[in-house]
Fold this sequence. Notes:
Blueprint lengths: L1 E3 L6 H10 L5 E3 L1 H5 L4 H9 L3 H4 L3 E2 L6 E5 L6 H7 L5 E8 L13 H4 L2 E2 L10 E9 L5 E3 L4 E3 L9 E3 L7 H5 L4 E3 L7 E5 L5 H10 L11 H7 L4 E2 L7 H12 L2 H22 L2 H16 L13
Helix pairs in contact: 1-11, 8-11, 8-12
Amino acid sequence: xxxxNDCSDGTLEIxxxxxxxxxxxxxxxxxxxxxxxxxxxxxxxxxxxxxxVRNAGWIISMDVDEFxxxxxxxxxxxxxxxxxxxxxxxxxxxLDFGCNGIEHYADRLLTEQMTVCDEKFPxxxxxxxxxxxxIRSTAPPYTMGNHRPFFENPDDTKLKWIDGAGRPFEKxxxxxxxxxxxxxxxxxxxxxxxxxxxxxxxYLTKAIKGNAIAINSFHGIEYWxxxxxxxxxxxxxxxxxxxxxxxxxxxxxxxxxSNLHQKTVAYHKAKIKELRSDKKSSKLLEAMKKAHxxxxxxxxxxxxxxx
Length: 307
């Protein structure tokens, strides 16, 4: 199920076509109906009422810039579940990828272009990163959150919660409101490849759009400095590109979908050209370039109480 809001680049039409072909279920975000800025929380709450979610064996809330990267078996979700038969909750730790020095937007897979990430094994073991969580239908009662579920009884013995290395999830994090975890050793079985900035030009389009929690909150240089992580080479997802391209080619063999895709690419190129000539956006672009080439390391995150 995919929820969209305020898209002007052709995304709506592409998803409607994918829906018609039976690949996805595309729905408008309910936040648009009640004119609320809380797009992501309301979409999640609404999704939980749909039979696709209620009848699913496993569910997860993910964003368009996140990719599940599995390291066990044949690297499918089925292989991950087989490896952890007793688990009914699996929290996957983020690994942020930077722009890799790429300035210009191109019609290519993000997972192919972006191969440099934040420190995968940071020296400070307390380094915390965000999570996204797979939840099995057999899990005890909970309220769904974007990053993790919140259980009515965190001490329920039926709760079998593990991290991306197959280790028991920390009890204090199960009970609290934590949305992250220490990342050291958390990527053994599965990780979330997160591409929050993409190319420099693409980031300009993200900056004016805002974020999914509160639309119209401009993403500026602060977010870029925080998320443009270019420290370690990380290409574990690359062997999956061949399969991805085969699947993508099959989708684009549909002439209607192919035409919609090309229109969207043209839209983005035109929008980027417009933004590069805009004073505020061009100033941001120059600041991004300067920040990127001055340093390849991002500030250390610290544990936040209640997160």
